[in-house]
Specification:
Number of domains of chain A: 2
Strand content of chain B: 15-25%
Distance between the termini of chain A: 37 Å
CATH topology of the largest domain in chain A: MetI-like fold
Structural class of chain A: mainly alpha
Largest sheet of chain B: 4 strands, antiparallel
CATH superfamily of the largest domain in chain A: MetI-like
Number of domains of chain B: 3
Number of strands of chain B: 8
Oligomer: heterodimer
CATH class of the largest domain in chain B: Mainly Alpha
Order of helices and strands of chain B: HHEEHEEEEEEHHHHHHHHHHHHH
Distance between the termini of chain B: 36 Å
Number of helices of chain B: 16
Radius of gyration of chain A: 30 Å
Shape of chain A: extended
CATH topology of the largest domain in chain B: MetI-like fold
Order of helices and strands of chain A: HHHHHHHHHHHHHHH
Radius of gyration of chain B: 33 Å
Number of helices of chain A: 15
Structural class of chain B: alpha+beta
Strand content of chain A: under 5%
CATH architecture of the largest domain in chain A: Orthogonal Bundle
Strand order of the largest sheet of chain B: 1-8-3-4
CATH architecture of the largest domain in chain B: Orthogonal Bundle
CATH superfamily of the largest domain in chain B: MetI-like
Chain lengths: 417, 408
């Protein structure tokens, strides 16, 4: 009689091998089997095209409908395969345990129970390993190697070498990152607190909160487009008209309010140095809603007794807020602050979309993109440079990581059962 | 009393700052091209002086005449489907070469604004127009004048139209393609991580296996790893996979004849998996915190009734975790729909396959002076997430609080 350990081992091996063989083959098989669906979609598109006599070329219609067909079946197959995994693995686990020890039910359930947790967590762990942990470590390695493969710290030379590629950019990126890090989270928190307090005091607070909340659903690029209408400058002149002779208008609201003349065409976010603050504001506009929601829940959680006691003692509203409520939600403020800091460090879209990688507006994340795609003079080590900047970005997140780990440990202890 | 008054004022001011950009976006998207690029959105609601160009008559119309009568508004609106211009004509920009008084024998270009009722010399004839748009163009003798383009400034009444939406959705194939691509990316990249994470969260909370707590802490601390850190190796890995797949296809099929062997490195499938990997830590964290809190008695009674873990998970835990699943799925949905960075590095880059944020980013460059199209495109990109967001607000807030307010 073989030991339980070896049965468990051989069963798991069998399950892994079956999964590795069966799933990809099934996927490819179904994918090629359902290929005619694309043609069917293309034909359907062609039929619609003829019926409603669309204006574009028939080829475009066919292509677009074939794409929809492919998309539909690819999505369905991907979902089917991921469900299939759990079903097959579980079925195999029970089946194999049954075959191996048909006599003893106790032993059978031991085998099943030993393997089952790994079936449940396996995909998650493998995906995390392949798409986060290993890549992150590989990046660390790449950042310390030359394109040829030898170890070196040259990729980090933008830290100290004046002539190195990225020296100036890194300094500007650090200056800007620092400004973003200090200003954006503080402004979001102040605004979030202010709005949370005010909205609780007035009857139409819920409506105000909904509107302030909506930007959270919008992409950073979308927000950039939105704010472009406010910050952009000078209307393009109507048909060759001349300034001074013909009426002409400012198309950016803020520039009009500031009284800039139309010929002063530069968008506010392009200003040297000060342009950064307009980009930051877009982020504040998006993220304040997040702070507001959390503070508003936290303020509602403040024990009513403490508030009443303070009122009886004669506290005015200001004292009530700063001396009673704020200290009690202080831990929430810290949590929100760390979340915002991480968000700010990773922000990429806003400066990328609006400043087209102007050196003066660089952040670490946009600097990475610039290193990869526009510093062609860097030659063969752009990848290594990219990795090195990524590691610098990582270093800035580490304090938050430690804080988060500590908080989760503490929470897990509370939840322990 | 005093305090309450200030509360109203300050909150109203903040609300206005938050809402005005949306008004700008939507107003601009409903204006005409000329209006949106020559005047600010706030002028769209009141009569505003704007420039237009019209030609006095059609090109083919070459009959000899002494006097031509017409109406400027009719000329402008002739080919206009969406925006019918009406209002009051203020002036015409008159440009012509006249003899230069300083340098005899030379001419100089003059430009001036001619108000209604004043005669100006156009192609040798007298051109007079009225504020209501009627113009008379009379010549000393019968000739067949060539059409003349004139720039006219009209104090025009507010006019809105959905032209930009029709143009972006029907005439331009980028926006529909981007919508399709965004859906291709967002559906599996939301459902796959939620499935994988739900199983893992169940295992982390109700199953016993060696290293459980440590694995959980490692998984959750991966939450703060910046995604940029993983791009390069993932790309290299996908590149390797693609070249293997290409070689395999070359070996098994006759694709070389049709030149269809190559598998692209940047594909939707790669994007799904990458988004799944990046979304898993938060998903596992949120779901495990929820599943761990389910009543123990419920699961144990199911066990006594002879259910195994799979049955308990599917029949008991999943139905009970719907709120947590909903709050994570809305997070993931919004994150992926709005994501530019991952899609840019990992996702397909062909024009027909880019997701909406990338398209919008490109349009910021290409539609630099077609603001009505840019804004319409942005509105379309926001419709889906804002609807989802407002419909599932409750779950979104619950998810936010679970992640950040103590003990949530």
């Amino acid at each position: 009689m073989r030991s339980l350990q070896s049965i468990i081992f051989s069963n798991s091996l069998a399950i892994v091998l079956t999964i590795v063989c069966v799933l990809p083959i099934t996927a490819v098989f179904i994918l090629s089997l359902t290929a005619p669906i694309d043609d069917a979609f293309a034909d359907f598109g062609l039929w619609l095209h003829k019926k409603y006599s669309w204006s574009e070329v028939t080829f475009v219609t066919e292509l677009r409908f074939a794409k929809v067909g492919f998309a539909l079946r690819a999505v369905l197959i991907a979902l089917f395969i991921s469900f299939l995994y759990y079903w097959i693995a579980n079925w195999l686990n029970f089946g194999l345990a049954n075959v191996r020890s048909s006599k003893s039910i106790g032993k059978r359930s031991l085998i099943v129970e030993a393997i089952q947790p790994w079936i449940f967590v396996g995909p998650a762990l493998i995906l995390l390993l392949l798409f986060l942990l290993i890549p992150a470590l590989t990046t660390l390695k790449i950042s310390f190697t030359e394109p040829g493969g030898s170890a070196s710290i040259n990729n980090y030379s933008f830290l100290w070498d004046r002539n190195a590629l990225g020296y100036i950019q890194f300094r500007l990126a650090m200056r800007n990152s620092l400004m973003w890090l200090i200003l954006v989270p503080s402004l979001c928190i102040v605004l979030g607190l202010l709005i949370a307090v005010l909205a609780d005091a007035v009857s139409w607070g819920v409506i105000a909160k909904t509107f302030i909340f909506i930007p959270l659903a919008i992409s950073f690029v979308g927000a950039s487009v939105i704010w472009r209408n406010i910050f952009a400058g000078g209307g393009i002149e109507p048909q060759e008209a001349i300034n001074g002779v013909t009426p002409s208008y400012q198309i950016g609201l803020l520039k009009a309010i500031l009284g800039h003349t139309p010929e002063y065409n530069e968008p506010l976010y392009n200003l040297k140095f000060w342009g950064n603050f307009y980009l930051m504001w877009i982020m504040v506009w998006i993220k304040s809603g997040f702070a507001m929601v959390i503070f508003s829940a936290a303020l509602r959680g403040v024990p009513q007794e403490t508030v009443e006691a303070a009122i009886i003692d004669g506290a005015n509203p200001r004292q009530l807020f700063f001396r009673v409520k704020l200290p009690q939600i202080f831990s929430t403020v810290v949590v929100v602050w760390t979340y915002l800091v991480t968000d700010v460090l990773k922000v990429f879209d806003i400066p990328y979309a609006l400043s087209a990688n102007d050196d003066d507006k660089l952040l670490l994340a946009t600097m990475m993109e610039a290193a990869m795609n526009t510093w062609s003079i860097g030659g063969s080590n752009v990848d290594n440079l990219f990795a090195a900047i990524a590691i610098m970005l990582m270093l800035t997140v580490i304090p938050h990581m430690i804080f988060l780990g500590w908080r989760i440990r503490r929470e897990q202890k509370q939840l322990e059962h | 009393m005093y305090n309450r008054f200030f509360s109203h004022i300050i909150l109203a001011a903040i609300l206005i700052i938050w809402v005005v950009p949306f008004v700008a976006l939507i107003t601009t998207s409903f204006r005409s091209e000329v209006a949106s690029k020559t005047s600010g959105f706030w002028t769209a609601f009141t009569p505003t002086e704007l420039g237009h160009r019209f030609s006095t008559h059609d090109k083919g119309q070459q009959i000899k005449i002494i006097e031509m009568r017409g109406n400027i508004f009719k000329r402008i609106n002739e080919n206009e489907e969406w925006f019918t211009i009406s209002g009051e004509i203020k002036s015409i920009l008159f440009k012509a070469r006249v003899p230069d008084s300083d340098k005899p024998g030379k001419t100089k270009l003059i430009r001036k604004l001619v108000p209604a009722g004043e005669i100006m010399n156009v192609r040798g004839g007298d051109f007079v127009f009225q504020a209501n748009g009627d113009f008379v163009w009379s010549f000393p003798e019968a000739i067949a004048p060539k059409p003349k383009n004139l720039d006219v400034f009209i104090k025009q009444d507010p006019v809105f139209g959905a032209e930009a939406y029709f143009e972006v959705l029907l005439d331009n194939k980028d926006v529909p393609n981007a919508l399709i691509s965004s859906f291709i990316v967002v559906v599996p990249a939301t459902i796959i991580p939620i499935t994988v994470a739900a199983f893992a969260a169940y295992a982390f909370s109700w199953m016993r296996f060696p290293g459980r707590d440590w694995l959980f802490i490692i998984v959750v601390s991966l939450m703060v790893v910046p995604t940029q850190l993983a791009f390069l190796p993932i790309l290299q890995g996908l590149n390797g996979l693609a070249s293997w797949a290409t070689a395999l296809k070359q070996w098994t099929t006759d694709c070389e004849l049709t030149n269809t062997c190559a598998f692209p490195t940047k594909s939707f499938a790669g994007l799904w998996l990458t988004h799944t990997g990046f979304g898993l830590p938060l998903a596992i964290f949120l779901l495990r915190n929820y599943i761990v809190g389910l009543p123990r008695e419920l699961l144990e009674s199911a066990k006594i009734d002879g259910a195994n873990h799979m049955q308990i998970f599917v029949k008991v835990v999943l139905p009970l975790s719907v709120p947590a699943l909903a709050s994570f799925s809305i997070f993931q949905f919004l994150w992926i729909w709005n994501d530019l960075l991952v899609a840019m590095f990992i996702g397909p880059s062909a024009n027909d396959d880019v997701v909406f944020p990338i398209l919008l980013e490109r349009q910021l460059g290409t539609f630099g002076d077609q603001l009505h199209l840019l804004n319409a495109s942005a509105v379309i990109s926001m419709v889906v997430p804002v609807i989802v967001f407002l419909a599932m607000q409750k779950y979104f807030i619950r998810g936010l609080l679970a992640g950040s307010v103590k003990g949530g």
